[in-house]
TrEMBL record:
Transmembrane segments: 20-40, 52-73, 106-126, 138-156
Name the UniProt record assigns to this protein: PH domain-containing protein
Source organism of this protein record: Nocardia lasii
Keywords: Membrane, Transmembrane, Transmembrane helix
Source superkingdom: Bacteria
Length: 280
């Protein structure tokens, strides 16, 4: 393999791969998941099948969430772009989600919907005996119902949009999936800047695609950790073609993949890119 294909894009200087408190949080949800799975063993031995299914599905949801978040953090680290899930068809660049992130997300949503469904069906009726107060037995099913609705919607979106690609860029527009807003499409002609969001809460890997006048709040936030090429390459990809409209015809053929491979997304005329290249 050539040195060009091993090129690793540097992250923008404002990014952090993770906040310090995320690691204790990940340890907590992983431990909670293991605890629930152990509870499922006891429920199985006592033939409490509803409770066993609930503990297994909720425990797996917690463990899978931990794995999923760790994979997202890993995507933020500098590493060579993974191009096996990148393609150019019908005049557009399509970048699918990194396979492990996509699979853990779908499995997490599946397990979560099973847990919520079992809770909604068995707790109000008293079929599943959990140590809950009368008020909790009344209100917790509503929270479980909201989680179920979200899980089903996001699961359907994930399954149906996965073949399309997490990030799609054509010579005229950019389209990407957002967690709560579905798929967002922005025309290049409307984009005024591609940068790192300002403020301490936004320092974890994120991309702000701005539209309209400065301070108008128009635009959308792109999570660059999902596309298989990695967070840093995703940031420089979107920023490069925003800054170079004369080169956007590359997005319709294999030249864009060659540029990603060779490190050509780092523009020496871009002050932010020059700053990032000093860390290489």
């Amino acid at each position: 393999m050539s040195a060009e294909k091993e090129f690793s894009y540097p992250a923008p200087g404002e990014w952090e791969t993770a906040r310090w408190w995320e690691y204790p949080f990940l340890a907590f949800i992983a431990g909670f998941g293991v605890f629930l799975l152990l509870q499922a063993v006891g429920s199985t031995e006592q033939s409490e099948w509803s409770k066993a299914i609930f503990f297994i599905s909720l425990g797996l949801t917690s463990v899978l969430m931990c794995v999923h978040l760790l994979l997202l953090i890993r995507q933020s680290h500098n590493k060579p772009p993974v191009l096996s899930r990148v393609s150019v068809t019908d005049g557009r660049l399509s970048i699918k989600s990194a396979r492990p992130i996509e699979l853990t997300n779908i499995a997490m949503l599946l397990c979560g919907t099973v847990a919520a469904s079992v809770f909604i069906v068995t707790v109000p009726s008293g079929e599943m005996d959990l140590p809950l107060t009368d008020g909790q037995r009344t209100f917790f099913p509503f929270f479980a119902g909201a989680a179920l609705v979200y899980g089903v919607i996001d699961l359907l979106r994930s399954v149906t949009q996965a073949p399309i690609g997490r990030l799609i860029i054509t010579p005229t527009e950019i389209s990407f999936k957002r967690t709560f807003a579905g798929r967002t499409t922005l025309n290049f002609s409307d984009i005024t800047d591609v940068t790192v969001p300002a403020g301490g809460r936004s320092k974890v890997s994120s991309v702000s695609v701005k539209c309209g006048p400065e301070g108008s709040g128009q635009g959308a936030g792109l999570d660059p950790r999902w596309p298989s090429v990695g967070a840093a390459a995703t940031f420089w990809l979107v920023r490069f073609y925003h800054r170079h409209p004369e080169l956007r015809d590359e997005l319709a053929d294999h030249r864009v993949i060659d540029r990603i491979e060779s490190g050509g997304l780092l523009d020496p005329e871009d002050p932010k890119a020059r700053m990032a290249m000093r860390t290489m």
